[in-house]
Amino acid sequence: MSTSIVMRKRVALIFLVMGICFTVIIGRLVYVQVANGAALRKIADDYHFRGVPVSPKRGDLEDRNGNKLGISISSETVYAIPAEVRASGRQKEIAKQLAPLLGMDEQDVVKRLTRRSSLEFIKKRVDAKTAAQVRLLNLPGVWTTEESQRYYPYGPLAAHIIGFTGVDNQGLEGIELTRDEELRGTPGSILTEYTAGGISIPGGKNSYIPPKQGNTVLLTIDTNIQGFAERELDELMSGQGQNLNGQIPKSASIIAMNPKTGEILALASRPVFDPNNYQAYDASTRRNIAVQNGYEPGSTFKIITLSAALQEKKIKPSEGFFDPGSYTVLGKSVRCWKAGGHGSQTFLQVAENSCNPGFIEMGQRLGMDNFYKYLLGFGFGQKTGIEMSGEAKGILANKKRATALDLATMSIGQTNNVTPIQLITAVSAVANGGTLMKPQLVKEIVSPSGQVVTPFQAQPVRRVIDEETARQAREILESVVTNGTGRRAFLPGYRVAGKTGTAQKVVNGRYAEGDYVASFISFAPANDPQIVVLAVIDGVRDYGGVVASPVVKGVLLDSLKYMGVKPQDGAPLTPKPLYGLEVPAVKKPVTVPSVLGLSAVEAEKALKQAGLSVVLEGQGSMVIQTVPHADSVVEEGTTVFVQLGQEGDKPALAPAEEEEDPDLEVIKALNRQVPDVLGRLKD
What pTM did the predictor assign? Predict the structure, then answer.
């Protein structure tokens, strides 16, 4: 083969290879330009255009009537472009001028100005005057931008519901957290063109992407009813509450609910904090105890036992029941709060008198399976689903290990642990005709243009009892207020239903003396309930009927008037005397004197001189314990149980419930069995 042919073949091969390579390159360019052009253009724009974020205005928080509970006010942020600051060569000089103006450490400002970032925030939430001074300095690479800052016009009012936001305007607690997505809006930005070295190009392209404002969230609460509740709590925590005699509770909460819809009208707790300056308060003040804390409800829970017994037709209101003064369960004698018992009475009067043996009888007739069916049906042992973080589900005794003794204590509201929101939700089912409703805090969500994005919808959970049973239960609970132990909540001209409750707290495996959780729950009008109010007060020496019912009465009366609910024709104007006891509705307060160490004769004389009744128990030469204990403030005529013994004897007497709320006796009488009961609490 000649040399020329070989050369031509080599040249052709080279051209072929070059053609293939050229084709591949052209194809790749076409692919990059067509398929990836938009994405690459965005990368280039992101590199050449740097945006200063513009925060959106956070949506308002309002009550059901449009009153502003949380709003956004203007503030400014000082930021820097580190590349421009470095290009000026004046980093330290700029930091020296900014630090005192912004109240910052100079070295901290230097670090921020020299970081390898495209944009650095120097300080947020700067007031308008300071921001203006920064602009007057005209420092290279240092700028300001307008942002919004959260402000709560009512301060601590409804703080546990509203929550608060952080420095970046993000929701941290309460509705601010649970509805953060709807409230926060969409950020905008100011885009400026920069060189590869990070310096802005004079006359370069600039663009503004406006932020989108967040939606307004309307809550179900009413600031007026919320105010009534917080007024009562403030009075309690100042030691000025009725029958507190200067004692300050450890904590307290009040909830008001519309029983027909599940709307929360008020939810207040103490201690409290101001969301405008939440950092200044201890974290414990932010705990929403109405939702996150459990307690033994005491006699308020008897509403559930009563409703279940009526539904299962285990009792009739007119049916007779004889209370000899005690009830024996598994060989344990459970004493009635009234010495000698109430004797012959109907089950209606059992409820009026809050007679423990009568309610234990209801529980025994129901049986374990039926009792637990209603426990779960009314929502105990499970979260209600209220829109609050950290909701507790309470604790129910393990059914498999529960005994007849447990059933007895559970029937009167001991052993099991519930939350205030669970209890008011359950009682609202009785008030509304038998349907358990999901408690709700958000009424509707409205866009910036005023359009309702998410309307309110009541959410029934399930029917627990039928309407006839609910009607019977309401009438009986109305009689409790008119004729029985709930008479301190009586409102002249209104049909009011309610129930007192008192529970001791377990400390080191035993029930603590003189440290009660007092509660009262009430609704009105009894024949057509518009509002249910629950008060739970922790750390008092007196009982629910004495301490908590006046609190509920104050909220209930003002709320009914505010809601336009007028007094009813035919409603009683005065309560009847307590069944079996001819005593006035409110008796003179008496302080129990100390008689420890005295003889039986001396103790009885001192107690009777103070206006108290006396029941002696045990044998011995001296008093080793009294119930109620010394310094307790009770009503005149209250029975004081005096335990006699010898020096060195351990007191074992169960504290006696006074007439206002007789629901402690069973558990107190079984103090020795408390460790066994506690061991069965977990599921």
Answer: 0.74
